[in-house]
Each structure stands twice: as structure tokens, then as C-alpha cells.
Design a protein that fits this description.
The protein is α/β, with parallel strands linked by helices. Helices cover about 30% and strands about 25% of the residues. Bound molecules: S-adenosylmethionine (SAM). S-adenosylmethionine binds next to α2 and α5.
Length: about 290
């Protein structure tokens, strides 16, 4: 099961992207923007619990992510969060010690939610509506902490441009922390007995187009699945991800893989079967 759709769910429309679609990164991103604006409906339903968590000084990040970020109190003037959605993870960085947070996302409806969360919590945060590939140059060199992941990379159709953006946003002594779904996750799902089985996903196929969302994540929206906007996602291979980061000039500190089910998409896997497959990974890096 992927964050986008459940292979066992025959109501989802899924097809390979056509060669024309694949050749046009901007067109795929424009389509994704509309689809994510529609999916923001689900995040709106999580607003009150986000307010309560942030007001209470809490964090929506995994302990694993907090360990990767480390102690930033008094050391992080600005944290930039790419693909910030409704801002809950971004404001968690504030609670963890960032003096100021900047969240970037291309969905206006997600950013409305993030603004409401700021108003409700009084957090020192600002929100920038932009494609990740076009983050304004005014933010260059200002991220003491640059954080992204949790279902972000799969939506991007040009990793080299993305990696170059990461490098230019980092302050000279800034750190990059990525915690993301592992591409191998797309290859496996639970069978009826809760054991791992192969899905039909092709690791090397590139983007696929889909309508409808995994029931464990966005689920059904008020717009029926078949009337939602087409969206384009792909499992970038670990080789492609690491190579893009290295080629950008970033200095990688660590690349690590985990069995952590980061979006609870594999709850139907038997406990004794868990822990055998990589479901998430992290990268930490400096500007180099
Ligand atoms: C799964 S969410 C990221 C995880 C997020 N921290 C959360 O709370 O769930 C994906 C986000 O990426 C945004 N997004 C996707 N492609 C993007 C792009 N090219 N530029 C900017 N934002 C993008 C979507 O609007 C959405 O808010």
C-alpha cells in the first residue's frame, strides 16, 4: 500500500503517466497542486487536534526525527520546512526550539490552514506559497535547520532541481534533515493473513497517475475519487535520491533506513512480520 492508493482497492484509478505527461514536470506539478488542494479537506479535519498539540508544547514528529534534529534550543534562528502542508510538523519545530519557522507549500488551502494554526497558537511562523522547485531566493542561506519528508519526495518530478534548492536554502552552518517514506515500501503490502507480499509496482517505472487516496491516509473526500484531479507520484529509488543530493554539493552525514511505519499504512501486517522491511529512511547533511 502506498500513501496514494491501496493496491487492493479497485476503486482507485491508477495508470502509468504517458510519455507526454512524463516529459512535462511543470504540468505534473500543476496537476498535483489541484489534487493537494482537494486533499487539504482531510487536513482541515485535523485542525483542532493540531491546535491542541502545538498549544500544549507538543510535537507531531517521531522521536527518531527529534533525535536526528538534535537539541536546537538557542541554536536555530530559522527552521525552514519544505512541503509543510497544514503546518503542524512545522510548528513542532518551533516547540522543539526553533526561534522562527518558515513553511513552504504550493497548496493555498493547506497554507490557509497553516495561517489559522499560527493565529491560534501565536507561533512566530510565516508561510510561503511556492512550488518547492521555485522557492524564493530571498530565503537563500537562511535555514539553520532545513526539514522535509513524510510523503514529500514522491510528488516531485525533478530531484536535481530539488536538491539544488536544498543546498541554496541552507545557512553556512545549517543542517538538512530528511525523514521520508522508503521507496521499497511501494513494493510490498500485507496479504489476507497479514504477511508481506509483492505489489504490482515497478520500482523503476517512474511516475504514475492516480485518482483516489489510500484509505489509511486521506481516505474519501467530498469529491468522489473518480472526479478528483489526476495526481502524479513516483517512488524515487534510493540511488536516485542519494545521487541527487551528492551532486548538488551537499555534504552527507548519514543515510539510514528504518522499519518505521511512518504513516501507519501497514497496520494490517502481523507483528512478527514487522521490522523485516525498510519502510522509511533519513538523510542528514550540511551545505558542504
Ligand atoms: C504528505 S504532505 C507532506 C507531509 C506533511 N508534513 C504532513 O503534515 O503530512 C505533502 C505536501 O506536499 C505539498 N506538495 C506536493 N508537491 C509540492 C511541490 N512541488 N511544491 C510545494 N509543495 C508541494 C502538498 O501540497 C502537501 O501539502
Amino acid at each position: 500500500m502506498t500513501i496514494i492508493h491501496d493496491p487492493g482497492d479497485d476503486t482507485a484509478d491508477v495508470r502509468p503517466a504517458t510519455p507526454e505527461e512524463m516529459a512535462d514536470v511543470r504540468r505534473m506539478h500543476t496537476s498535483n497542486r489541484v489534487a493537494w488542494d482537494q486533499a487539504a479537506e482531510r487536513y482541515e479535519g485535523w485542525f483542532e487536534e493540531s491546535v491542541a498539540q502545538i498549544r500544549a508544547g507538543g510535537s507531531s514528529l517521531f522521536p527518531l526525527e527529534e533525535a536526528l534534529i538534535g537539541d536546537i534550543r538557542g541554536r536555530c534562528r530559522r527552521a525552514i520546512h519544505l512541503q509543510c502542508a497544514g503546518g503542524r510538523d512545522s510548528l513542532s519545530l518551533w516547540n522543539l526550539g526553533a526561534a522562527e519557522v518558515v513553511g513552504i507549500d504550493f497548496s493555498p488551502r493547506m497554507l490557509d490552514l497553516a495561517r489559522r494554526l499560527t493565529e491560534a497558537t501565536g507561533a512566530p511562523a510565516s508561510w510561503v506559497e511556492s512550488d518547492v522547485l521555485d522557492v524564493p531566493h530571498t530565503l537563500d542561506g537562511t535555514a539553520d535547520l532545513l526539514y522535509t519528508g513524510r510523503g514529500s519526495l514522491m510528488w516531485l518530478q525533478d530531484l536535481d532541481v530539488w536538491a539544488a534548492v536544498l543546498r541554496r536554502l541552507l545557512a553556512p552552518s545549517g543542517r538538512l534533515v530528511i525523514f521520508e517514506g522508503h521507496p521499497a515500501e511501494w513494493l510490498f503490502d500485507a496479504d489476507e493473513d497479514g504477511r508481506w507480499m509483492l505489489t504490482g509496482y515497478d520500482y523503476f517505472a517512474g511516475p504514475e497517475a492516480s485518482r483516489g487516496w489510500a484509505r489509511a491516509y486521506i481516505d474519501r473526500l467530498s469529491i468522489p475519487d473518480g472526479e478528483q484531479h489526476w495526481k502524479f507520484a513516483r517512488a524515487w529509488t534510493m540511488g536516485e535520491i542519494v545521487t541527487a543530493l551528492v551532486r548538488s554539493g551537499l555534504r552527507l552525514e548519514e543515510v539510514a533506513e528504518y522499519p518505521v511505519d511512518w504513516w501507519a499504512g501497514h497496520r494490517d501486517v502481523r507483528p512478527e512480520e514487522r521490522g523485516r522491511l525498510p519502510l522509511s529512511f533519513s538523510v542528514t547533511a550540511t551545505r558542504g
